[in-house]
Amino acid sequence: MPALPTGDPVPADGALPSSALATIADTEFALYLHVPFCRVRCGYCDFNTYTKPELGGHGATIDTFADAAIAEMDVAQDVLTAGGANPPAVSTIFIGGGTPTMLPAADLVRMVAAARERWGFADNIEITTEANPDTITPEIAVELAAGGFTRVSLGMQSAVPSVLATLERTHDPANVATALRACRAAGLAVSLDLIYGTPGETLGQWRMSLEEAIDLEPDHLSAYALTIEEGTKMGAQVKRGQLPTPDDDDEADKYELASELLMDAGYEWYEISNWSRGPATQCRHNLGYWRGVNWWGIGPGAHSHVGGVRWWNVKHPAAYASRLAQGLSPAHSREVLTAEQRSDEDILLGVRLAQGYPIASLPHKGRGAIAPLIGDGLIGGRAALRGSIVLTQRGRLLADTVVHHLING
Ligand SMILES: C[S@@+](CC[C@H](N)C(=O)[O-])C[C@H]1O[C@@H](n2cnc3c(N)ncnc32)[C@H](O)[C@@H]1O
Ligand code: SF4
User: Fold this and answer.
1) Mean pLDDT over all residues of the chain?
2) Which of 8, 34, 63, 185 has the most CB atoms in a 10 Å sphere around its CB?
3) 98 CA → ligand 2 middle, Å
4) Do 57 and 311 meet the contact criterion of CB atoms below 8 Å apart?
């Protein structure tokens, strides 16, 4: 797992500067909850998550996690109201991990209810949990829906057993369909997560995964290129030459295939790696991150953003539980973004969206890059005439280059 970034110290009670709270009442407010438990660790994953033997029964364990998370909500409530204003009702909640469904559904529902007691819910709130396909039964799906959940995001990754084996995914591929049907029967929207570029995966195998995912008719799909993370088992296998290094051209071909098959099946891209059946089934929580709303991240290692201040919690569940038990904020460090950093980040995130980034919000030097970027086929000429930067398919593959030019000219 990577170390936390360095940053400035945070006061013991987590208090924010008054400048960060100045616009709190008028800025959309979202919650993220990080559940740091997995049954086994997949070889490619460096997320902040722990198996039972790794935890050794200390700190926020599966049994005590919900109480610790609710204790952090109390910290959040004190910090957010210190300027005399309240944040608006919560617009979206996303429970991610780790494997949130390692917790009993009753605990997931209890954490959501605790958030409602403190902040209230917007009328059309979106509440998502991530889940591994093996961890959803019809009973669990019904309990989640009754507790207010509206979406489940299932980690399908691939439909091909040999690819799942390379990723060290333990779920039975048949359980993706079973879990999806259980969610749908309970009235929950379903998203499927896919990964492409696993070492050894052929283009034909990626096509099979896409076709199988499309056949299941999910409301939403995410497709991410596999990142080889240093410090993971897969990172070591690639370093030792036991697995081939992913190839940029192969990944580009796979992205283009995803784009083509998903579009043909009626899915629209709304962010570089995300497709939905239309605006109603886009993930509003993730859109909030890309649009820079305020969100509080609860749980070990969770990141938060309020009014230009970003902070992150201590990583280990034991340290997290111990801070909260002492009545302290679990925040580890933070950074206060300058106006220039906020503008750069706004571009970096906003350009990823199909709705486009307003040219009027670009710095002067970035506007000079527009004509060459259109000439190189990376952004759309017609959208630019209407005042927006919208990536072309080629631009979506080279988004970092586009962002670099829009920021630096
Ligand atoms: C961290 S997981 C949490 C949800 C759940 N445990 C699961 O695996 O589906 C969320 C998503 O991140 C993806 N992910 C984790 N490590 C990745 C990596 N190195 N490259 C690309 N995607 C990754 C997972 O495959 C999964 O779809
Ligand atoms: S199940 Fe998900 S969070 Fe857990 S190790 Fe695998 S990819 Fe990471």
Assistant:
1) 95
2) 34
3) 5
4) no
